[in-house]
Amino acid sequence: MISKKKAIIYGVLLVVITFMITSTLNIALGGKVVIPKETYEAYKKYNKMIALEELVKDDFYQEASDDKLVDGAIKGMFSGLDDPYSQYYTKTEFEKLKEQTSGSFVGIGVYISPTSDDDHITIIAPIEGSPAEKSGIKAGDKILKVDGKVVSAKNSDEAITMIKGKKGTEVELTIKRGEQILDVKVKRDEIVSKTVEGKVLDNNIGYIKITSFSEHTNKEFENTLNTLKESNIKGLVIDLRDNPGGLLNVCKDIADSLIGEGTIVYTKDNKGNTEYLKSDKEKLGLPIAVLTNEGSASASEILTGAIIDNKVGISVGTTTFGKGLVQSVRELKDGTGYKLTTAQYFTPSGEYINGKGINPTIEEKDEEKQLDVALKWIKEQI
User: Fold this and answer.
1) Closest CA to 206 of 220, 224, 194
2) Residue 195 near residue 250, CB atoms below 8 Å
3) Is residue 298 annotated as part of the catalytic site, yes or no?
4) Which of 20, 75, 279, 364 is the most exposed place for a label (fewest CB within 10 A)?
5) With bands split at pLDDT 50, 70 and 90, how would you rate the model's confidence at 26?
6) 323 catalytically annotated
7) Per-residue 3-state assignment (H helix, E strand, C coil) for the chain
8) pTM score > 0.70 for this model?
9) Among 75, 142, 209, 323, which one carries the catalytic annotation?
10) Per the residue annotation, which of 193, 309, 315, 339 is the catalytic one?
11) How far apart are CA 207 and CA 228, in angstroms?
12) Catalytic residue chosen out of the listed positions 130, 296, 298, 300
């Protein structure tokens, strides 16, 4: 009889030999690689793309670049999401994206965005004092061509590259404004975005205009607000008109210094997970009126919703843009990156504003009267 010890050894050897045979059969069979059925089914959907790649390389009249073909395929995957805010960026494009959030670049000075209304690139707002503003470009203008080349939301990255260039050179934009088609020449310049401006108005009411939420906006806001506090302001107007949004964490920090303990915003991802951004007990303790219009988007809407829903202020003006989606930006190891819509956001009261915006507490369509209406409300609260 075989001893118990030998039986165990034979058993282990049998398992090892069986594993080796199975692995060998899986690795090579008749000179072909054999993979599990589940893996094959997962990759089968790419057969058409691989076949087309070969056809393109064989038949295209020039030598095709592997890197460009791969980048194009990845861009196509993001495009297949049918989400205007999700994009893949090449290394060069991602560097420019980071540049946008830093607040300094060479260009004409406009904030742009795709919209769900059409396939055009829409100007959310020109930067105050920028070459674009001086050339007469307005919020809501649609960019049809750049230097005669047709552009659309699908190739917005290419359009941005074409619009930017060397300082002192000109670029011609063909824009649609209502039913008008206009050709506008703009001279490129270095754009250093000062995102916050403040002053004291009559009756000791503070006024702060925020043009975007970039990396340095919170510091600028803190300094401006502290200066206004030293002047013993009795109320505050925050002007978010034509503010296209920006960094969520910066918006959160600003809201945190205004609303006291409460919810700033909450998000839901595709699995139903909910995340709340909260503020602490720090509170301005003064009546706040926010000025909004159709150019107030994203982070501007989050700040507006936080102020209104936490009952520390109101909004005056017109309905905001309506962007209630959160994007995550990731840089990959090779310097490329992507922006992907990963969640929906809701105001503290549970309002989902995507596509509809935030209606003003007091509607005033005449922009020249909006500040006066806000000041009147604040005076009534003092």
Assistant:
1) 224
2) no
3) yes
4) 20
5) very low
6) yes
7) CCCHHHHHHHHHHHHHHHHHHHHHHHHCECCECCCCHHHHHHHHCCHHHHHHHHHHHHHCCCCCCHHHHHHHHHHHHHHCCCCCCCEEECHHHHHHHHHHHHCEEEECCEEEEECCCCCCEEEEEECCCCHHHHCCCCCCCEEEEECCEECCHHHHHHHHHHHCCCCCCEEEEEEEECCEEEEEEEECEEEECCCEEEEEEHHHEEEEEECCECCCHHHHHHHHHHHHHHCCCCEEEEECCCCCCECHHHHHHHHHCCECCEEEEEEECCCCCEEEEEECCCECCCCEEEEECCCCCCHHHHHHHHHHHCCCEEEEECCCCCCCEEEEEEECCCCCEEEEEEEEEECCCCCCCCCCCCCCCEECCCHHHHHHHHHHHHHHHC
8) no
9) 323
10) 309
11) 8
12) 298
pLDDT digits (tens, 9 = 90+) for 272-316: 999 999 999 789 999 999 999 999 999 999 999 999 999 999 999
- The first and second tokens of residue 41, run together, are 């089914």
